Amino acid sequence: MPISSLPTRTPVVRLLDTDWSLTALAGPAPAHLRRLTVPATVPGSVHTDLLAAELIPDPYLDGNEQLLSWIGLTDWRYSTTFVWNPAGADRSELVFAGLDTIAEIELNGVLLGTTRNMHRSYTFDVGSRLKAGLNELVVVFRSPIKAADAASLELGYRPHVNHHPYNAIRKMACSFGWDWGIDTSTSGLWKPVTLVSWSTARLHAVRPIATVQTTTVQSTAGDTSSHSAGTVDVHVVISRATDAPVTVTASVAGVSRTLELAAGATSATVTLEVPEVDLWWPTGYGEHPLYDVVVTLHDADTAHELDRSHTRVGFRTVEFDTIPDDAGTPFTLVINGQSVFVRGANWIPDDAFPHRIDRARYQRRLEQAQFANINLIRVWGGGIFESDDFYDLCDEKGLLTWQDFLLACAAYAEEAPLGDEIEAEARENVARLAAHPSLVVLNGNNENLWGFEEWNWKLRLDGKTWGAGFYYDVFPAIVAELAPHIGYTPGSPFSPVAGSVRNDLHPNDPEHGTMHIWDLWNQRDYPDYRDYAPRFVAEFGWQGPPTWSTLTESIHDDPLTPESPGMLVHQKAMEGNVKLTDGLLPHLPLPNEIGAWHWAMSLNQATAISTAIEHFRSLAPHCMGSIVWQLNDCWPATSWAAVDGYGRPKPLLYAIKHAYADRLITVQPRGDGLAVIAVNDSAEPWSGELRVRRYTDAGVVLAEHAEQVTLPARSNATVPLPASVSATTDAAAELLRAELGGVRGHWFFAEARDSALSDSAPDVLAERTTTGYTVRVTAASLTRDLALLVDTVDPDALVDDMLVTLLPGESVLFTIDSVLDVDPAAFAAPTVLRSTNQLVRP
């Protein structure tokens, strides 16, 4: 009998997502909320339940964050009732996919257990606790702030950033606030709760590991061809209610195999050999085919299907090239034998309340990453192990992913109970994520190796453990056991030595491995990015405000100023506004009007990151990756993000798009002069005439250099410029333009504030279309960084490009997606159509 026609007795999964209520218990809750019971949503959190009940203001608005600080100091009771009728199942289990964080679970008045870890799931056998008819389920959450404070004393003080000892409990670190994030310190059932009833046995875990072997054959004619064969080792763990023999069948790509598990056996590995597979490639390198892996569990005696699992895999190889060279130690990601220049962005939780992030929201954010030509997303270690939806979408889109283990900017106790929790969450999540072909890096921590060496931790620790055992022993052993096909690095930043995860190199040495660059922004100006010649930059960034519509929707100060009360609540960086000002003034005057201030800071953020990325890419293959801090935001704030907390793209996203384009022309200092670097990070050769002209700001050509260049795929070419072209006679009124095959790069000899930019108004023609509007802009004079801030007209509008530089008489056509019915001329207003010129000649 074919498997598909066999009778089934699969687990019955009941989602317990209705009839929940929330009650404040002990703590500083306002008098009118004490013992008040309100409806609750599961998955959810205390904040969002109180917000839905209209009992608190939106924590994202104005100064409400501080008004709601009592929530994290209060204990909370979630409760529900459900009807259960015995149906003959051998076993019933309550499964909590995510509890945030310090929880006590009771069923019908009996304590099932206590939990202290947001980052793992919990399963309780409740067969003997359920009763026919009505059952009551209660989850009491204790104050996470009080729990963290108490645990910090019990474990012994260990250094951390920010104001709460988040490193003492296993809660999302940024839930306690960060230098870009709101302090919610919330509690709740943040993932689903299910009641699972089953008989005989069920699939507890299915972990398919796909590997590939590629052979290259040369024909007698000298042609070469490659052939890839795949292997999928399907690791299966079952839970048993009886010792009856069972069978496990696994199939992929038309290949199927069945194993019998003897009475009492709980694990098996089914190996499937696939004679021919298509390789999974990252975006820009090829297609991203996925293969379905189906696993079924059957009763060996009755042939009843007991359980079924569906997973997807992709066939690819991952290596890090860290072979020392004359310049130090590279850190090059190699996929299927192909070196990849990482065009990355860091990712934080997309909402301070991560239960609100659904698949559609992940889809929108990852599409914005694709728009910006990003090929890798790094999931930062102060957030969460990202969801299956996130990783499924990255698999489909060919977006490489890098997942930090969740230890960030702090020292962590290695002893029990915290050490046991960290190991348990690591094992569960590595096993959960192992099948995803997009996941190519598992990273031990964020900045903890650096902190231990440089942030005076050694004195403060006074001999206590700090996490080294996790990074050098526990985590690499878990990865080797559960996901050997995924690369591991002990930390970011980290300086590798071939063949060993431990060494005496400084972890943030620019000559070795990965580094973070934060003296830029904190102490130094962004042109100084060019002082670095890193091998790989895993973090660097510059702040800017959210889009205007997000700013004014979330902050209602009157007057609204850079230092008005709500603005300061939404600026979490230490001396953030001071650094914004210090970083602007060398380049542009500081405006005294809030709209111009907003544009100036947005533009400066975009220019800073463009400067960095273009420099790093110009160094390839010496430097083989840059990961911008950061792609997204968790609430509406002034921050390093390219997409703000309400999901709107900032000018920075367009700057990243340009700087991360497959083909880039950039002008860089080299020696005593300038050079044009052509970057071809595409799969095809690029050749043509490189033409470099020095212009006056009136568009008059003063000097010219032309040269034929040919770039193989995935290569750079450096063209030194003769002094006749690169030496200016009037820095304030001259610029260089380099162009190859329609791709342009510019070099300005003077800072914008010192230039002779004109305030001549451009000619603008705005028209309605079937999907929105077009705006054609023709420059009357040299116009730098032309941008349409379309959200100021329609908060939901999107424009296809931004930050375009035009010589006099040149035009650009912007296309706007918008459903709002407005006079097209609204998009030509000077508060919408922005440029650098407006800031120099207001």
From TrEMBL:
Source species, domain of life: Bacteria
Family: Belongs to the glycosyl hydrolase 2 family.
InterPro entries, per the entry: Beta-gal/glucu_dom_sf, Beta-mannosidase-like_N2, Beta-mannosidase_GH2, Galactose-bd-like_sf, GH, Ig-like_fold, Ig-like_GH2
Catalytic activity as recorded in UniProt: Hydrolysis of terminal, non-reducing beta-D-mannose residues in beta-D-mannosides
UniProt KW keywords: Glycosidase, Hydrolase
Domain Beta-mannosidase-like galactose-binding positions: 29-191
PANTHER family found in the cross-reference section: BETA-MANNOSIDASE
Name this protein carries in UniProt: beta-mannosidase
Keyword Hydrolase: yes
Top-level class of the enzyme under EC nomenclature: hydrolase
Pfam families, per database record: Glyco_hydro_2, Glyco_hydro_2_N2
E.C. number: 3.2.1.25
Molecular function in Gene Ontology: beta-mannosidase activity
Source species of the chain: Cryobacterium arcticum
High-level lineage: Bacteria, Bacillati, Actinomycetota, Actinomycetes, Micrococcales
UniProt keyword annotation of Hydrolase present: yes
